[in-house]
Amino acid sequence: MALDRLHAMTVLVAVAEEQSFAAAARRLALSPPVVTRAVAALERRLGVKLLVRTTRFVRPTDAGQGYLESARRIVAEADEADAAAAGSHGAPRGMLKITAPVLFGSLYVMPSVAAFLSRFPDVSVSALIVDRVVNLLEEGIDVGVRIGDLPDSSMRAIPAGFVRRVVCASPRYLRKHRTPVAPGDLSGHTIIAATAVTPSGEWRFLDGKRRLTVRVRPRLTVTSNDSAIRAALQGFGVVRLMSYQVAEHLATGRLVRVLSAYEPPPSPIHVIHLEGRLASAALRGFVDLLVKQLRSEPALQQAGR
User: Fold this and answer.
1) Mind listing the pLDDT tens digit for each residue in 214-224?
2) Where in the chain is the domain with CATH 1.10.10.10?
3) pLDDT at residue number 28
C-alpha cells in the first residue's frame, strides 16, 4: 500500500513538472493510461482534485499545490535513501529544473550549470530563462534566482549579492549633450526605456533621505535589455538598467554612469528553492556551487556609488 502511494506521488510530481500526462509517461517509461490511473486513484483516496486538466496544460489546483510540495519532498527523500543503500549517498543524480532572468542567467547562471553538469554526469538540467517571476511550485522548478526583495514565503532564500539600478549613456552621446547632474535634467535628454527593468514610465531616485520620482518620455521603448544596451552603446540616448547588465561596458568605458549620487538602495540577489532538509544531493550541490560562484563575482558584490 505504502509503495503504491509512493508510486502515485512520483507520478503526480512528474505530471506536474512536465505539465502533461503524456510527457510524464515518457519520463517515467510508463504507458499514458497507467499515469492517468495513478493520479485518479490518488485523487479518489484523498477526496480532492489535485490537478486541473485543459487542452493546453496540466497544473495543480489550490489543494494540489500544498500536497505536491510534500510529495516532492517525500519522493526526494526516498531517492536519497535508495542512493544511500546503493552506496552512492551524496552523489548528485537526476533532473534539476532551474530558472533565472534572461541576461543574468546567461552571464552568471549558465556557467555554473555547465560546470555542474561536467562534474556530475548523472545529472541533467532544464533551464527556464525568462524575464518574469516564476512560481517555483506551480511550474515544477527546483532552484531560482530572484532579484529584489522577497515576499514572505515557504521558500528557502540564500543571499548571493546585490545589484543597483544605474543610469548610463555612451561617451559619444554625453559629448553631444550636457551630462545630467540631477534627476530633473533627464527631461532634456533622449530616453531609452527597458520595460523589463522599469515597467512604468517613472524612474525613482533618492536625494539623501528624500525620494524623487521622475516621469520620463522615452524616444525608444524595448522589452529586451540587450536591445536597450545596444541602443545606448550606439550613442542614441540615456538608459536605466541593472548594474550587472552593463558592468562590462562601464568597466571598459563604453558606457558612463551618471546620477550615481541619486541611486536608490541596492536590490538583493537570492538563490531560492522549495526544498529544505530533504533536498536531493543534486539540488544541494548545485545551490552550493551557484551561491559560491555568484558571491565571487565582483559586479554582484560591490555597493560603491
Assistant:
1) 998 999 999 88
2) 1-89
3) 85
Q: Candidates 3.40.190.10, 3.40.50.261, 3.90.550.10, 3.30.590.10; correct CATH number of 165-262?
A: 3.40.190.10
Contact assessment for residue 249 and residue 229, using Cβ atoms and an 8 Å cutoff = yes
Which of 53, 57, 11 is closest to 31 using CA atoms? 11
CATH topology of domain 90-160+267-300: D-Maltodextrin-Binding Protein; domain 2 (3.40.190)
DSSP 108: I
Write the DSSP symbol of residue 274.
S
Report the run of H or E that residue 85 belongs to, with start and end: helix 62-85
Give the confidence band of 246 by pLDDT, cuts at 50, 70, 90. very high
In this structure, what is the dihedral angle of CA atoms 38, 43, 45, 47, given to the nearest 10 degrees? -170
Angle at 243 between CA 242 and CA 248, to 5 degrees: 125
Q: Is 105 helix (H, G, I), strand (E, B) or coil?
A: helix
Count helices and strands in the chain by DSSP H and E runs: 10, 14
The set of cell numbers assigned to 112 is 555554473
* Residues 246 and 109 sit within 8 Å (Cβ to Cβ): no
Residues of the chain with CATH 3.40.190.10: 90-160+267-300, 165-262
Q: How confident is the model at residue 243 (pLDDT cuts 50, 70, 90)?
A: very high
Residue 92 burial (10 A CB sphere; 0-12, 13-18, 19+): buried
Instruction: For 289-299, write each residue's pLDDT tens digit.
Output: 999 999 999 88
pLDDT at 85: 61
Query: What is the pLDDT at residue 194?
Result: 87
Q: Is the overall model pTM greater than 0.85, yes or no?
A: no
Q: How many angstroms separate the CA atoms of 12 and 51, rounded?
A: 9
CA distance 163 to 267: 5
152, three cell numbers = 514572505
The CATH architecture of the domain made up of 1-89 is Orthogonal Bundle (1.10)
